[in-house]
Amino acid sequence: MNLRPDPTFYPSPKLAMEGPVEKLAFTLMLSPDFSQPDGLAVVNVDPSSDDYCKIVHTVIMPEKGDEFHHFGWNACSSSLSPLTGHAFLERRYLIIPGIRSSRIYVVDVKEPLNAKIHKIIEPEEVFAKTGYSRPHTIHCGPEGIYVSTLGGGGPDGTDGPPGIFIMDCETFDIIGRYEIERGVQDKHYDFWWNLPRDYMVSSEWALPPQFENGLVPEDLLSNKYGHRIHFWNLRNRTNIQTIDLGENHQMALEIRPAHDPVKQHGFCGVVVDTTNLQGAVFTWWRNEDGSFEARKTITIDPQPADPDDLPDLLKGFSAVPPLVTDIDLSMDDRFLYVSCWGTGEMHQYDVSDPMNPKLAGKVEIGGIVKKTKHPNGKDFGYGPQMVEISRDGKRVYWTNSLYSTWDDQFYPGDRGAAMVKADVGEDGGLALDPKFWIDFPKGYRTHQIRLEGGDCSTDSFCYPSV
Amino acid sequence: MGDLTTTTAGLWLAVVLSGLYHGINPGMGWPLAVSAAMMERRTSALWAALAALAAGHFVAMLAILLPFTAMTTLIEWQREIRIAASLLVIGMGLYIAVTRRHPRFLARVPPSRLALWSFLVALAHGAALMILPIYLGLCSVEESDAGHRAAAEIMGENVRLALAVSVIHTLAMIGAGAALAYAVFRWLGLRFLSRSWFDLELVWAFSLLLVGGIGLWAAI
């Protein structure tokens, strides 16, 4: 226990930006063929250190086949509201769910170079206490740790809808389901919220049979993947509104609300528009009367390609879709980063006017067709995927794998893990750091990155920046 | 009686000091007033939030004190009542010292219902209970001056006393909270919030033990 709040808890996004620069990153490693246990890599990102760009510690799990994807902290800046009643938690544990096994690991990173497993929650416990499976996004909030899931009960996760469950933020016991009234929500992916204004937003990817063994082309072309976003009264635990983005907008994934709680808008990335293969970003916002609206504000066109250069899945289209698989918003709510995993591009949009985003920077690396090499001459393997921004907004890190079975469909063969960094210009602009490259152990792929002391997709703030 | 713990002046001082102590504790809500004012970008929201916090705290005081007020008419049981009340406070102190847990249901209260939250938190963390032995001490001081009177008269007097204790305690509490909230909002900034927040949970538990212990000692 601390006697004062954890120094990495910041009342406002502005104060978070002024905090110390991250020296370590935590990157998830997954074994795509389940031949090795998944792991957590602790990466030195301090340029002044002799160990810069080296993996300084790994935590290898005891089980195989977990498939690590997203993860999060046990506590964040949201603890600084008296309403939560636990201001003295430590940002100390990473909660790492396996989306394939439904097992959850709690890893103690108080001493990052000696990080170790603190607790393992077995899949049976998740099933028994929640009726959900395939845990995914982690956020710490008013009632503890909130975990979104992609599956319901039963062997294929289709017995009942997926949802969110709550874990105790100190004991890590599973408390139970979050939802009291879910309305029409029947699929799940990401969620986030605005704590003082007491609303939550959630999104839809797909049901487990639609992703676990690979993308199902028939389902995609008949628009059966998720295409709605749901708005919730956070503390009431009820779905208050659902917006259909249009059934052609397949796979509404990351939800990124403005960090400054005084703002009442946010973004949601859509992987592919089945009418034209575009990728898209929607801006959603809350009206004064409490109702929500959403409008498409970014579209990214597919790029024509020779069918010979395309995997079987895409040959018929003679084009490579951008595949917007991740988006992330800088702490000052100014720049939105959009991963185009198919074309191999990382876009940076100035979203100072959230209804009118402007492309401010772009980096090309990897890609199904272009296969752009890193400035150091190495192959990036796949495309830019999970992206994380430093609190001060000056550095952007990303990895290359989407999801084991989907990687194999779009990028056949094993192409190696990667994690790169780009530097952000004073007034926008994005350039890869030629010196930054991490070598991961053989046979692994990389997914989400978390930065020491919090980053732009973990912390929720209870006080405005002004 | 020169003892500060049993004189009228000493007990009223305790009412005020405990109010100030509750007020400066961020856990009792003053940062929420800062948040409200910053969210709405006007100082009036700060006062509105503080008023809601004060109302909740005040009602929580009455919720604890009034049932005991009714019991103070049982003059022959007065000593036992004071002992029971003191033991209750000590029990709460021990519970907080051992569990150090914040009840999760408090996190279900929406941020827009600050008065309700303040009411519940004052009960759940024993803030209202802390006042009880002090109040009963005041009742007995008044009583020893008055001699034998009708129960209704004593009851009326003690209701007035409970109201006075609650009002003065709440004024001290919200005065301290308001001073901090306003200072952070206008001058000190949010950085002060995270730097000045200390974990008072153990101190809080010991305060309950102390107040309960003195109450017990005075009653016996």
Topology overview:
The complex is a heterodimer of chains A (466) and B (220).
Chain A: H1 13-17, E1 24-30, E2 37-44, E3 55-64, E4 72-73, E5 93-97, E6 104-108, E7 116-121, H2 123-130, E8 133-141, E9 144-151, E10 164-167, E11 174-177, E12 191-194, E13 199-202, H3 217-221, E14 228-233, E15 238-244, E16 249-257, E17 265-273, E18 279-286, E19 292-300, E20 303-304, H4 312-315, E21 319-320, E22 324-329, E23 335-340, E24 345-350, E25 358-364, E26 387-389, E27 395-399, H5 404-410, E28 419-424, E29 430-432, E30 445-451
Antiparallel strand pairs in A: 1-2, 1-30, 2-3, 4-5, 5-6, 6-7, 8-9, 9-10, 10-11, 12-13, 13-14, 14-15, 16-17, 17-18, 18-19, 20-21, 22-23, 23-24, 24-25, 26-27, 27-28, 28-29
Chain B: H1 8-24, H2 30-40, H3 43-71, H4 78-99, H5 114-124, H6 127-146, H7 151-188, H8 190-196, H9 201-219
Helix pairs in contact in B: 1-6, 1-7, 2-3, 2-7, 3-5, 3-6, 3-7, 4-6, 4-9, 6-7, 6-9
Summed up:
Chain A has helices spanning 13-17, 123-130, 217-221, 312-315, 404-410; strands at 24-30, 37-44, 55-64, 72-73, 93-97, 104-108, 116-121, 133-141, 144-151, 164-167, 174-177, 191-194, 199-202, 228-233, 238-244, 249-257, 265-273, 279-286, 292-300, 303-304, 319-320, 324-329, 335-340, 345-350, 358-364, 387-389, 395-399, 419-424, 430-432, 445-451. With 466 residues, chain A is mainly beta.
- What's the domain count of chain A? 1
Largest interface: A-B, 37 and 33 residues
Major beta-sheet overview of chain B: none
Q: Which range does the strand content of chain B fall in?
A: under 5%
Q: Indicate the CATH class of chain A.
A: Mainly Beta
What do we call the CATH homologous superfamily of chain A? YVTN repeat-like/Quinoprotein amine dehydrogenase
Uncertain segments of chain B are: none
How many beta-strand segments of chain A?
A: 30
Tell me the overall shape of chain B. Answer: globular
**H/E series of chain B, N to C?**
HHHHHHHHH
Q: Treating each run of at least 4 consecutive H or I residues as one helix, how many helices of chain A? A: 5
For the termini of chain B, the CA-CA separation is 16 Å
DSSP strand count of chain B? 0
The gyration radius over C-alpha positions of chain B equals: 18 Å
CATH topology assignment of chain A: Methylamine Dehydrogenase, Chain H
Protein name (chain B): Arginine/ornithine antiporter ArcD
Keywords (chain B): Membrane, Transmembrane, Transmembrane helix
Transmembrane segments (chain B): 6-24, 45-69, 81-98, 114-136, 161-185, 197-219
Organism (chain B): Ruegeria marisrubri
